[in-house]
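Q: Could you fold this chain for me?
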Amino acid sequence: MKCPSCGYYDTRVVDSRPTENEAIRRRRQCRKCGYRFTTYETYEVDEKKRLIVIKKDGTMQMFDRNKILIGLFQACYKRPVTKDTIIHMAADIEDELMARGGNEVTSDEIGRLVMEKLRRTDDVSYVRFASVYRKFAAVQDFRTELDELEKEEGK
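A: Sure. Below is the predicted structure, expressed as structure tokens.
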């Protein structure tokens, strides 16, 4: 790594730690002038492995894990679900989609995976997400979903 102060190409890593956005933060020090600076390392996904989401209206867009995170955070708002759990759920969903092979996925597939993760994690968060994803229009829709949850828990 080139020192931004003197231009010397030999630096050493003083400290490394992960950041919230999956980067690695490294504190470095130049071996020549002693200048300290910070770098961030991120990974790049091969173009061939990028996921394309086919939406319900037929339009396509690049997969964005942040959209899943936003939906999960909204569903789990003020619920006993930790931030780490939410981040791991989003990562698991992306991993499952990548493991299927191919680079196209429908928004329905993503929604179903999110619902599966939430159902196993927190019932209230699951119902919140389901109400938006399935477009509940009446109280009866909530009752039907809650009855299904109770049947499943009773097994």
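A (continued): The longest helix spans residues 83-99.
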